[in-house]
Each structure stands twice: as structure tokens, then as C-alpha cells.
Amino acid sequence: MKRVNPMNDVSATGLEPPPFDVTVPHVARIYDYLLNGKDNYAADRAAAARLLEQIPHAAGACLQNRDFLSRVVRRLAARGIRQFLDIGSGLPAVENVHEVAKKASPACRVVYVDNDRVVCAHARAVLASTADGVEVVQGDMRDPAGIIAAAKEHLDFGGPVAVLMFAVLHFLTAGDDPHAIVRALAGPLVPGSAIAVSHITADATDPARSQAAQQVYQGASAPAVPRPLAEIERFFTGLTLLPPGVADIRAWGLGKPEPGAALTFYGGVALVPGEERQRL
């Protein structure tokens, strides 16, 4: 794997990430804890415990999100896509994108992007001995042009690229205009490329519990903003959604979820329309 000088990371977007502070819960480390990971601190575990008090199925939902990610990568790789840009990748976990993609084809290339320099440094250390074609760059979703510029150093945007945004867009507020950010990321993609999203929702959650859960993230490195189905569907405007469209991630590609199970994430995958799509 090509090494990237961490001192050059901020120049990829020009946006300074928050300073490293183990006393402030970090969304990536909270997620790591909910996935049974070990790269977290006491503040992260305490925040996760408060979250689980309000949303007892949150840990299970995070595991379901990882499973959804794997299914999506396999499906896109089966369609012939060999380049993946994973934005907001967080700390390495089981079934990482490159592991799933390279099972389909060793030729697959993957760029991981996160806005936190410590997360990026940790990811590089973990992935240092991985196969060629895997890179980690620091970038912020609020600067999509910077992310694309950094990714173009490693991926060929003259061919199809799958842009993955799993469990990350809900850390953008309305003031960040996340729908415009997704449009900007989709803009440079050629026909046959893909946009894949998973996003938390409160559509099936008691409003008081949802507000209490959001309050946990108010004291963390980023807020959490659940969105209703209609707002999540807007991320795919102008794109061609793959069946079953934007749906409960547990049902996406698998059929119906178990009756009575709690809806936490919506997800969807769409292709950039055009002639190239017909050849995938």
C-alpha cells in the first residue's frame, strides 16, 4: 500500500478536524464499541451505554449495517465495478470494503476516507500489510471537491467508481446541506458508477427516545441527525435506484425483516445512468 504522509492530510480538504481528546466521545469510537471493537475509550463506552439505554437495539443495528455494507459491495463487484471510495470509513472492522471487494476480484481498488487524523493513522497502521490498491486519505464530507481530488490520485474516474457513504451522512446537519454534498460527489462519476448510502431514521422510534439518543451525540465529536424516508430518498435524485430501492437495510436484497424487528437504518444503492450501465 502506498504510504501517505499524515502531515499532508489536512491539505486534502482544507478543513481542520477536531483535536484528539479521549475525554470527548468520538462517533467512530462509539461505533467501534457497538461493533464489539477494542479501539475506544471510557468516554466512548459511557456514551454508547447512554445510547443503548434509549435505543437498546443500537448495537445490533450497527452489526446489521456492516452486513448491509458487505452485501452492497458484493453486488456492485458482481456488476463489474472495481473501484470503491468509502467515505467516513471509520476504524477498521470485520468485513472491510477491500476484503469483500478483493474476494470478487484482486484487481479492485479501494480508497478509505475519514476526517479524523487519528482514525486515518490507525487505519494505515492496521492496513499497512494489506494488498496493493488500498489507500487511506484524510478528507471531510463538507469538502466533496477535496475528497474527489484526493481520490483521483488513486482511482480512475474515467471508469466506474462506487461511492459508499454508510452510517455517515447523518452526522451532517441541515446547515451542511448533505443532499448538495451527495450531488457534488456524484457529479464527477461516469455512467455505471454507483452511490450507496445507509442512514439512521427515527421513523419507527418513540420521539422522546430519539431525542434522548440525539442528545448523547450532542456531547460527542459530531451530532446525529436521523432523517425520514423521504429525505433519504432525496439523496438518490437523478440516479437509477437498484431494487428494492431505499428500504430497511435488513430487508435490502434479502426479503422482509422479521415481524416486530426495529427499523433503525434505511439504505439504498443507485447507478449513474447512461450507456455504460448496460455493460455492467
Report on the structure:
The protein is of the alpha/beta class and 280 residues long. It has a single domain (6-279), classed as Rossmann fold, CATH 3.40.50.150. 34% of the residues lie in helices and 14% in strands. It has helices at 27-34, 42-54, 58-78, 97-104, 117-127, 144-151, 178-186, 207-218, 229-233, and strands spanning 83-87, 109-114, 134-138, 162-166, 194-200, 240-241, 247-248, 265-271. Strands 1, 2, 3, 4, 5, 6, 7 and 8 form an eight-stranded mixed sheet that branches. Helix 5 links the parallel strand 2 (109-114) and strand 3 (134-138). The relative contact order is 0.16. The model is unreliable at 1-13 and 276-280 (pLDDT under 50).
Q: Give me the CATH superfamily.
A: Vaccinia Virus protein VP39
CATH topology term: Rossmann fold
Report the mean per-residue pLDDT as an integer.
86
Largest sheet: 8 strands, mixed
Distance between the termini: 28 Å
SSE arrangement:
Layout: H1 27-34, H2 42-54, H3 58-78, E1 83-87, H4 97-104, E2 109-114, H5 117-127, E3 134-138, H6 144-151, E4 162-166, H7 178-186, E5 194-200, H8 207-218, H9 229-233, E6 240-241, E7 247-248, E8 265-271
Parallel strand pairs: 1-2, 1-4, 2-3, 4-5
Antiparallel strand pairs: 5-8, 6-8, 7-8
Helix pairs in contact: 1-2, 2-8, 3-4, 6-7
